[in-house]
Amino acid sequence: MLTFPKGFLWGAAASAPQTEGHALGGGKTATTWDKWFELNPEKFNNNQGPEVTSNVYEFYKEDIQRMKEIGMNSYRTSISWARLLPDGKTLNKEAVTFYRSYFQTLRENGIEPIINLFHFDMPWWLMEKGGWETRESVEAFAFYAETAFVEFGDLVKRWATFNEPLVHIECGYLYGFHYPAIVDFKKAIQVGYHTLMAHVKAVEAFRQGHFEGEIGIILNVTPTYAKSNEDRDMEAKNKADLLIIKSFLDPCVLGEVSKDLVELLKDNELIPTTIETDKEIIKHNRVDYIGINYYQPMRVKAPETSQVPAQTPADFFASYDWPEKRINPYRGWEIYPEALYDVAMMMKNDYNNIPWFVSENGMGVADEERFLDEKGMVQDDYRVDFMKEHLGQLYKGIQEGSSCFGYHTWTFVDCWSWLNGYRNRYGFYRVDLDNNLNRSLKKSGLWYKELSQHNGF
Ligand code: BG6
To answer: What transmembrane ranges does the database entry give (predicted)?
Structure first.
C-alpha cells in the first residue's frame, strides 16, 4: 500500500472554455476560440466548436455531486475573462452570480476550488489590439485578476494565474494550433515576456490587496532527455531546458529570469522589449506554490543544421525518437511515468523544495464506446494503469522529500479540447454527445474513489 501525505489533494482539472459551453451566452463576449471557430470551423475536429461543451454553465450543481461521488476533495477550473469582464472593464453581474454559486457549491460539498485565471482564452476585444503582443495586455490582465480576487476572494483560497503559458505562446506563435497561428520566434518571445509580466503583476495585485490564501501558476513541465551524453546533444538539452523548463519556473519561483536564457536570446537577436522596473517586480512577486501538468517527456538531440540567429526552436534542438518509447497512440504522446520522479527531484533540488502539486496528468483515448460493458460503463483499465504507474513514481519522489501536496487528473467529465474537439476522452465520467450530454461513470472513477478514500493504493 502506498500512502500519501495527510491532507493530500485528490481531484481533477478543467477549464472554463473547455467545459462551460454557452460561449456567447450569459453576457460573455467572444474569445479567440469562438472567433476562430466562426472563421474556420473546418479546422476543428468534426466541426465541434466551443459553443457546446459539457455545458457546466447549466450542469455544475449535478456535476459537483458527481465529483463528491468519486471522492474528489479538490477541483481546478478557470474563470472566463470574457465572461467576467465582457469588455475588459465592465463587471458582468450574471457571471459573478454564476461563479459565486459554482465555487460556493464546491465548498459546501467539501471540494476545494483552485481557480485559475487564464486557460488559452484570450478575449477577442484584446486580440484585436494585438493580444499578448501588446504591453497593454499586462495591465488589462492585472485588472481582471484583481477583479476576480475582490469578487471571489472569500470563496477561493488557492489561485493560479495561468495554465501552461508556454502553450499559447508556442501554439499561437510557432506551431499553428492556436489563433493567430503565425510563425514568428521574435513575437513568440515577446508574447512570452508579456505573459510573464501579466502573471507577476497579478501576483503583485494579490499581495498588495492582502487577499487571504495562496497564489501560484500552472506550468506544463516536459522534462527533457538528451539522446546521448555527447556535448552537442547535451547543449541541445540545455537550450531546451532554458526555453521549456526554466523560462517560467525561474522567475516565478526564484524571482529572476535565468541569465543563461538572457544570453541565449541575446545571441539570437530575440531579446524582447522590457521596462526598466520589471526586474524588481519579478524579484518581489514570487509564487506560493507551483502546479505541474505532466503528460510526456521531451527527447532531444542536436539539430542536423541550424541558423544563427535562430528562426525557430528547431535551430536549438531537434526532437529525438527514442526507440524504446511506449506511446499513447490516440494522442501520440510518449508514456514515461519515471519523469514524474525526476520532476519531483527537480522541484526539491533546484527550486527550494517549494510546495507543488501535479495539476494535470491523464490519458486521452479515442472511441471509448468500444470499451462499454453491458451495463453501459466504460472499462478504462488502461487509465487506471496509467494513474497507478505515475502515482508510483510520484510516491517515490515524496518519500525522498519532495513537497508535493496533491494529484489532479485531466479531467473530471470528458471535455472539449480545442482543435481536437471531442476526439480524445479523458474523463472519469463519459459525456454522451448524442444524448443530451448525459454523464456516465467510467471504471476509473470507481478506482479514484477508493484511491481518495484510502489516501493511497
Ligand atoms: C493540457 C491543457 O495541456 O492538456 C488542456 O491544459 C488540454 O487544456 C489537456 O485539454 C489535454 O490535451 P489535449 O490536447 O488532448 O486536450
So the answer is: none
